[in-house]
């Protein structure tokens, strides 16, 4: 089933900061695009689950934390980190 992917303001700012700081912006953009695409389908199976209920997904060089709301079919990206 398909999910809607949204992000918090914090995650948006983190991604913008990363994009402004790195030398290979295309790599960051491509990684984030792959993350969004993978979260649109079977988001509840993506990445690793944290005991507190949120999940972590890494597509080099980006790592995100996200929550999945099955009832709403909504994925919310909570944070974005750069890990070269």
How is this structure best summarized?
The protein is an alpha+beta fold and 84 residues long.
Total domains, how many?
1
Q: What is the end-to-end distance?
A: 32 Å
Supply Rg: 12 Å
Strand content: 25-35%
Number of strands: 5
Question: How would you name the CATH homologous superfamily?
Answer: RelE-like
Oligomer: single chain
Specify the CATH class.
Answer: Alpha Beta
Derived from helix and strand composition plus strand pairing, the structural class reads alpha+beta
Number of helices: 2
What features would you highlight for this structure?
single chain; 84 residues; alpha+beta; YaeB-like fold; five-stranded mixed sheet; 2 helices; 5 strands; 33% strand
Sequence-ordered SSE layout with sheet pairings:
Layout: E1 4-7, H1 9-21, H2 25-39, E2 48-49, E3 55-59, E4 62-69, E5 74-82
Parallel strand pairs: 1-5
Antiparallel strand pairs: 2-3, 3-4, 4-5
């Amino acid at each position: 089933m398909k999910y809607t992917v949204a992000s918090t303001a914090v995650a948006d700012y983190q991604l913008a900061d990363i994009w402004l700081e790195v030398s290979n912006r295309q790599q960051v953009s491509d990684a984030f695009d792959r993350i969004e695409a993978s979260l649109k389908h079977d988001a509840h199976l993506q990445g690793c689950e944290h005991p507190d209920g949120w999940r972590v997904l890494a597509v080099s060089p980006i790592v995100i934390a996200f929550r999945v709301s099955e009832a709403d079919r909504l994925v919310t990206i909570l944070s974005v980190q750069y890990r070269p």
